[in-house]
Amino acid sequence: IFFRLHIMSDATLPEAKRQKTDAKILKGAEVAKEIREQIKQEVQELKEKHSIVPGLVTILVGANPASQSYIRSKNKTATDLGFESVQETHPEDITEAKLLELVDKYNNDPKIHGILVQLPLPKHINEEKVLLAISPDKDVDGFHPTNVGKLLIGNPKFLPCTPYGIQELLVRSGQPLKGAEVVVVGRSNIVGKPIAAMLMQKSPTGNATVTVCHTGTKDIAAHTRRADIVIAAVGVKEYITGDMIKDGAVIIDVGVNEVGVTAEGKRILKGDVCYAECAAKASAITPVPGGVGPMTITMLMKNTLAAAKAAVPQ
Description:
The N and C termini lie far apart (81 Å). Residues 1-20 have low confidence and may be disordered. Helix 8 (161-172) crosses helix 9 (192-200) and helix 8 packs across helix 12 (293-309). The protein is α/β, with parallel strands linked by helices. It is globular. Strands 1-11-8-7-5-6 form a 6-stranded parallel beta sheet. Strands 3-2-4 form a 3-stranded parallel beta sheet, sandwiched between helices. It has a two-stranded antiparallel ribbon with strand order 9-10. The protein has helices at 2-11, 15-18, 28-50, 65-80, 96-107, 127-133, 145-152, 161-172, 192-200, 220-224, 275-279, 293-309, and strands spanning 24-25, 55-61, 84-90, 114-117, 181-185, 209-213, 229-232, 250-253, 257-261, 267-270, 284-285.
């Protein structure tokens, strides 16, 4: 009778109470704050010693609400860190030629060290052509083929911001990478491919054994179940479930999927990972929001600072 009563009482508990977990929550917001403090100090030193102020221009075409929100956040962060922040906002019907002229203008402006063109662009503009037009020395997003190639051979100039943030989050939270089995779910040029290349490099922040899964993978779960670290960047809400990971795995959730809005108009977000199920088994996990997201903008600032430092006369 006691056993039966015990089971019934446990079943009546809220789900969050039943799913006990000791998983460490990898709060990107906290790590990002630490890095920003370091950047702020270095910016001040750069000003005092060399009279150089890191300059970042962000170019927005159209009025996409999500893009506007990201740009506002980037500009605020840049200003808070002591950067010179320039905002270029243009109507959706700007011609490709005019946009390329604008990029060329800032390529040749010595006070601007980083150029960011907010994607996506309108359909009449060739995104690849615009990204190629940005000088590799000012490509603080890390998307130019020259910088992608330098990353692949292990001699990066600028690392793509989201993968850079993931790597920093893993390193700073003490997750062992050397020899770790890492499974990346998703092969995008923005996250999947670069993070795989970064973590496989022979370096103190790499040396992992990396597998990349994608839509052509026959049995994704067979790969994720053996992974020490799972990086989910697939763009599908709660794609990675608890039965797809092993006990003690580290889970990095890159997904940002809007599933609704609150009564106050605030977006409700879900990641690519079923958080409750995976947190019950993982040793560490990133939340959504507040995990990888805050790291992305911070690493953009770190890249811009690096570009400004490269402008110091030798």
